[in-house]
Each structure stands twice: as C-alpha cells, then as structure tokens.
Design goal:
The protein has 21 helices and 2 strands. The protein is mainly α. A two-stranded antiparallel sheet has the order 1-2. The longest helix has 69 residues.
Length: 587
C-alpha cells in the first residue's frame, strides 16, 4: 500500500487554489457565454435555482467535510489510525442519509418556493439540481477524509471534474436545445404568433420568455451530471488506493472507538459547523426572497421610474415589462459571478488551515497557532485587496471583457461591481476565519456573527431595494454592511480565543498600500488608453489589468510584503525564494 501524501498548509492551499482557479476559469467559460446566450433575464432562472440549492449544498460541501477533516486530523495526530478509518465509514452512512433527505426536501419545496419568489417557472431548474445534494454529500465524506490527511489533491481533482463536465455538457446542451427551439419557432410562427411549450405567443420576445426557464434547466443538468462524475472519481480512487496508511501505522494504532461514539462525536462537531452554513445560506435564501419581492414592490410603486432609469438597457435587451424583475435579478447574478471569484479562491486557505490549526490547537503549540493564523490572513489579504481595488477601479472594462455580448446590462452592473470590489477583502476573509474558528472549537461564533450580519442585510434590502430610485443597486450595499459586521466579530473573536496578536503591518498595511497602487495604476492605464488615445477594444481592459497586476507585484516586493512561506507554495518556490532573498525582497 502506498504511503499517503501529506501536504503543508500552503502547499495544500496551493493545490486547492490551483484547482479553484481552473474551476473558476471553466466556470467563466460556462457562465459568461451562458449569460450571453440566455440574456440576464434567462440567466435569472439559472441563478434562482442556485439560491434555494445553495443552503443544502453548503452543508454538504462546507460543514460536513470540515467535521470529518477535523476529526481525522486530530486522530492521526495522536496515532489513532483505526479511528480515522472508522470515521470515514461512519461519515459515509451519515452523509448518505443527510444527502437523500436534502434532495427530497428540495424536490418538495421547488414549486412553492418558486411561486414565493415571484418566478413560478423556476421550479423546473430546482428539480433538476436537487440530486446534486445527495451526490455532494457523498463527496464530502471522501473530501473531508483526504483533507484530514492534509492531502488536498483529491478534492481539487474532483472539483475540476465537476466543472469540466458542467462546461462540456451544460453549455453545449443548452446551446443546441435553445437554438433548436428558436429555429422551430421561426419556422412555425405566423406573423410572430406560434405555440411554444404549449403556450400561445404573439412575437419573438414572448417566445424567448417562455423558452428561458427550460433552457436554464438544461444548463443545470450539466451541474448535476458534473457532481455525479466527481463522486465517481473519488469512489474509484478510494477503491484503488484504500485508506492510505501503512500496515505498520495500522498495527500500532490502538483499538478504535465504537461506531456510535464516533457518530456522536461527528454529529457534535458537524452540527454547529453545518448550522453556521445553514444560517448563512438560509439568510442568503431569505436575501434572495427579499431582493425579488422588493424588486416586485419597487415595480408596483415606481415602474415608470425604473423603466426610465434603465430605458436604454431594457430596450436593447427587448425586455417585456413582466420580465424586468428577472432582468435586473439576472444582471445582479452576473455581477455576483465576478464578486464570488476571489472568496472562492481564499476559501481554500481556510480548508487547508483546518487540519493544521486543529493539530496545533490539540498540541497547544502557540507558535504554530500564531503562524497558521497570520499566514492565512496575510495571504487572503494579498489576494483579495489587489483584486478588489482593481475591480473597483475599472468595473466597466472588466464587464466589457466578460460580457461583451450583453453590453446592455453593463451600465446597470458597473456601480454594483464597484461596491463589491471595495468590499472584496471582507468577503474573502469570512470563510477562512470561520474555518479557523471551527478548527479551535468555537463553531458558535460564526453562527452568531452571520445571524447578526444577515439581519442587517435583510433590513437594508427591505429599505433600499424597495425604493424605486435605488432598486437592485441597493443589494451590494446591504451585502457590504452585512460582511463588515461578520468580519469584525469573527476577527476579534479569533484573536481573543487564540490569544494571538497579529502583525498588522505585514497582514494588512503592506497589501493595502500595494493594492491601492494597483488600483490607481489600472485606472490610469485604462484612462490614458481609452480616454486619451481613444482606443476602443477589450484589449484595453486586459492591458489595464495587467499593468495593475505588475504594479502590485513590484510594490509588494519593494515593501517586502511577501515572506518566504508565501513563495514556497508556488511551483519551484524554493528557487524563487532564494533569488528574492538574495536581492533582499522577502519580508
């Protein structure tokens, strides 16, 4: 039996980060053409299915693997190998029950929820995505087990498989079906009138409105198939390689606890972690509900205001009055695709920190505890601050690069993306801090902070989005306020619980100054090329991003904002670190 792979915190984070970047690139190749194909109105149905699916998905992909990872890493730390093996089997049985229950619940509430959010046809996509809950729960037992062994590769590979299948099947199937339906309509239409999916339509705009929910459901099929094949990969890997322990380790391990004891311990750890995910994602579901309902209210009391505000965009998109809510909601969903990119990458730092910090906490290794916390926070800021301020500096060119075929929505999306860019460091730090609090046994704190922040968010949604003069543009503001609250509570609690004093200059100040220079450089490059030289091309935005990135890298090196451990996570990191140290560029 091959000896198991064991990765350091940053190596493990690096593996997951690389996988995440690949997944996000695939996701961009998937979601951006999908948005361009379906328009923001059609994409609203796709996003709407995720809004109800995400709470259950988060339990399976955030709460459950964390519990398994924490228990496995602690047992391995103390040489209880048989317990680690038994935990995996217990988790599989438990997670199957949770996943099956989640799938059934999602199927049962698909239609009532869709009616509630003023989008009845959304139930088709929700039904299609429901089996993902079961598949993802089963994946969690595998992923959590390998993560507990500090081997992040299986998680990364399975994520890439999920995304790749989603891209190949989801996008191609949607393109083929949608264009076939549209072609059939054009052949059968008489003066624009035809029957589409059993409904009489008078023109092409009405025909498209009928097709969008079904096209979104086809796209969601790719997500379901991807999760199924990701699970298949992990199952085959486990069957071929087993647990990954040597015979000597197993023989020298003490007798394991009973299944009942391990199951109770797993539930004891998983319950508050899952509850934290539930609180966050149910708040997101309520957030989705309030956004849609308050948009509907704003349209009721101020339709003329909203139509005048977005007249150019709505006219270019040929959006009917009854489709305006979905159009605005879909535009916001397109912005969220960009906003969620960086937090998804920094999430990998939190996942990798769980076994490392759990082991250090169990061993009362204060130096390792401080080092892990500082590393996670510093690298998070190094990634999030330049990305966020860069996005805030040039939101228009970034949207132009990604959504050139849906230019009509860019004037609406631009101010929202700017707000999300300014709050990026808050969004990016939340999950890693939550994971670290969970690793030291304080699963209750994220629940409280998320609950308080979510209440503020929902209240602001009610006030801002219901105002016809603000409408959907209020969503990013309420989100930013929510995460300010969560960030402040989680960070203060983490430092207090662990009794750690972080180096503020290294963790926050140096990345912020360099990121500010990055944003200024990106804005300046875009202004000079686009405004002064009057060059119109998507390459302008790409050039501005590149200039900002180079400025940031140089600034971080000059300010010695990068430390050796950060470099070691890169390919050939040891050689790069030696070169940088030679020129005195490492902090």
């Amino acid at each position: 039996m091959a000896e198991r792979k064991k990765q350091s915190l940053l190596t493990g984070a690096g593996v997951l980060a690389i996988a995440t970047v690949i997944v996000k690139l695939i996701g961009a190749v998937y979601k951006i053409p999908l948005t361009n194909l379906l328009t923001p109105e059609g994409y609203g149905y796709f996003t709407g299915a995720y809004a109800i699916y995400n709470p259950l998905y988060a339990i399976s992909m955030a709460g459950l693997p964390v519990a398994v990872s924490k228990m496995v890493s602690q047992n391995v730390e103390f040489g209880r190998i048989k317990d680690a093996q038994r935990i995996f089997h217990v988790a599989q049985k438990l997670f199957f029950i949770v996943g099956l229950t989640g799938t059934v619940i999602l199927m049962c509430i698909a239609y009532p929820y869709s009616v509630m959010v003023k989008s009845p046809m959304n139930y088709i996509s929700v039904l299609v995505v429901a089996p993902c809950v079961l598949f993802c729960c089963m994946m969690s037992s595998f992923r959590g087990y390998y993560e507990g062994l500090k081997n992040m590769t299986p998680t990364g590979v399975s994520q890439v498989i999920e995304a790749g299948v989603k891209l190949v099947f989801g996008l191609s199937a949607t393109y083929i079906c949608f264009n076939r339906w549209l072609s059939t309509y054009h052949k059968e239409a008489v003066d624009g009138a035809a029957t589409v999916f059993g409904q009489q339509v008078k023109n092409e705009a009405e025909a498209l409105a009928v097709m969008y929910p079904y096209a979104a459901a086809v796209a969601i099929m790719g997500v379901t198939l991807g999760s199924m094949l990701g699970l298949l990969y992990l199952f085959i890997k486990y069957k071929r390689q087993g647990f990954g322990f040597t015979r000597e380790e197993i023989v020298n391990s003490p007798a394991p606890e009973s299944d009942k004891t391990l199951r109770n311990n797993l539930i004891r750890i998983a319950a508050p972690i899952a509850l934290s995910s539930i609180v966050l994602n149910i708040s997101n579901m309520i957030d989705d509900l309030t956004i849609r309902n308050r948009l509907a209210y704003a349209m009721e009391v101020g339709a003329d205001v909203i139509k005048e505000m977005y007249s150019a965009s709505l006219s270019a998109a040929q959006t009917l009055d009854e489709g305006i809510n979905n159009y605005l909601y879909g535009t916001h969903g397109s912005v969220l695709n960009i906003k969620n990119l960086i937090p998804t990458i920094t999430l990998t730092l939190g996942i990798s920190a769980i076994p490392a910090l759990s082991s250090a906490w169990a061993a009362k290794d204060k130096k390792e505890i401080k080092g892990t916390i500082e590393t996670v926070l510093r690298v998070t800021m190094m990634i999030a601050m330049p990305a966020g301020l860069g996005i805030a500096a040039i939101p228009g060119p970034i949207l132009e690069i990604l959504y050139s075929s849906s230019r009509d929505m860019i004037p609406i999306a631009e101010p929202m993306l700017r707000v999300y860019g300014l709050g990026m460091f808050l969004f990016a730090a939340t999950s890693p801090m939550t994971n670290m609090l969970q690793a030291v046994g304080r699963m209750d704190i994220p629940i409280k902070s998320i609950a308080i922040g979510s209440c503020a968010k929902i209240l602001l949604n009610f006030i801002l989005i219901g105002n016809p003069n603000i409408n959907i543009k209020g969503a990013p503001v309420s989100t930013a306020v929510c995460y300010i609250i969560i960030f402040a509570i989680n960070l203060g609690s983490l430092l207090k619980v662990t009794d750690v004093k972080i180096n503020v200059i290294s963790v926050y100040l140096k990345p912020f100054i360099s990121a500010a220079l990055c944003g200024i450089a990106a804005w300046g490059a875009n202004y000079i090329i686009a405004e002064k030289l009057m060059i119109e091309s998507r390459l302008v935005g790409i050039a501005a991003i590149g200039f900002g990135g180079v400025t940031y890298a140089i600034s971080m090196l000059l300010f010695k904002g990068i430390v050796k451990d950060d470099v070691l996570m890169l390919p050939k990191g040891e050689k790069i670190a030696k070169v940088l140290a030679k020129f005195g560029l490492l902090g």
